[in-house]
Amino acid sequence: MGHRVGELARHLGGELLGPGGLEVSRIAPLAEAGADCITFIAQAKLLPQLAASAAGCIIVAPAQRELAEQRVAAGRGAVILCAEPYLAFARLTQWWAAATRARPTPGVHATAVVEPGVRLPPSAHVGALAYVGAGAQLGEGCVVGAQAHVGAGASLGAGTVLMPRAMFSEGCRIGARGLVHGGAVIGADGFGFAPHEGRWEKIEQLGGVLIGDDVEIGANSCIDRGALGDTVLEDGVKIDNLVQIAHNVRIGAHTAFAGCAAVAGSARIGRFCTIGGAARILGHLEIADHVHITATTLVSRSIHKPGQYSGAFPFDDNASWEKNAATLRQLHSLRDRLRAVEKALGKSLEKKTPS
């Protein structure tokens, strides 16, 4: 079913140029968009495609008004001017999903298991073969997908969705509007063992996982429960697929992790940080607010100043690695000393050269 671009422009708070009655039936990438599609341009390098694109409607920045007006005057569709086209695209996808995706019907599927003492509002949905443990609490509009697991005493805030086969273990808590994708495990035991006579004695993990509002956790990611206190993810944290968050880690609000990143136990990560794909953060470190760690970086010491950080070092036996790492840290000063020696040596040679 099509949607009129005038309606979309009003929703996005943008200025429409062109026919408001034009209908589009899907969102498409710029290079693939046809007359029935809406797309966007957020990068300057793509602006040459504005005139030639076959898209029915394109979202661009107000700075491109002249090009947009030329496109509309040539009868090539409509344009919506938005201050931040990429943000407008994100909000358009949210609106589109809400308008086109069917919400699960409230109620409990006949094959689901709901133990005694569960708080289950009429607006919640529990899917086929799902399990909700004793004393769990589900907020208004919660969705527990097919074969998903909610442990005893766990708590899900209003509007939170567990996708099929997600696991949310006993005693864990998540706030409103959360999204946990399939295969994710929230509240598995942290990796805690005491060495004794060549063997490992298990340390029972007695804490939980506390997750704030508007948190998304990707497929097959793992958030371990705390050993005594809780592992904590504050509001707005975004976790990609295949991410490991160990026990007693604390992640500040609106920090985002790309796929395959890992954080060892008891690390403290600030707010508004970004952690690149396959980056690793060692245990018990502290990362300040507004720190951006690039992909595959190994963070082996605390970071106390905002900024972007990168780096890795070749694998070696530990003694050699430590010596090389110590030398690497001093390369800048060694370079300056070498230049000073070269300069002094040059002057000495000039004095000895006969005129």
What can you tell me about this protein's structure?
The protein has 355 residues and is of the alpha/beta class. Among the domains are: 3-100, MurE/MurF, N-terminal domain (Udp-n-acetylmuramoylalanyl-d-glutamate--2,6- Diaminopimelate Ligase, Chain: A, domain 1, 3-Layer(aba) Sandwich); 318-352. The strands form 6 sheets. It has an 11-stranded parallel sheet, with no helix packed on it. Strands 9-11-14-17-20-25-28-31-34-37 form a 10-stranded parallel sheet, with no helix packed on it. An 8-stranded parallel sheet has the order 12-15-18-23-26-29-32-35, with no helix packed on it. The mean pLDDT is 94.
Keyword list:
alpha/beta, flat, single chain, 10-stranded parallel β-sheet, 355 residues, 11-stranded parallel β-sheet, Udp-n-acetylmuramoylalanyl-d-glutamate--2,6- Diaminopimelate Ligase, Chain: A, domain 1, 6 helices, 26% strand, 38 strands
For the biggest sheet, the summary is: 11 strands, parallel
Instruction: Report the span from N to C terminus.
Output: 91 Å
Measured by DSSP, the beta-strand proportion falls in 25-35%
Could you say what the CATH topology of the domain at 3-100 is called? Udp-n-acetylmuramoylalanyl-d-glutamate--2,6- Diaminopimelate Ligase, Chain: A, domain 1
* Strand elements, count: 38
Give unreliable regions as ranges. Answer: none
Kindly report the spatial arrangement of strands forming the biggest sheet: 8-10-13-16-19-24-27-30-33-36-38
Instruction: Please give the CATH class of the domain at 3-100.
Output: Alpha Beta
Which class of secondary structure composition applies to the elements? alpha/beta
- Classified in CATH, the superfamily of the domain at 3-100 is MurE/MurF, N-terminal domain
Tertiary shape:
flat
Label the CATH architecture of the domain at 3-100: 3-Layer(aba) Sandwich
Radius of gyration: 27 Å
Provide a count of the helices.
6
Helical content stands at 10-25%
**What's the mean pLDDT score?**
94
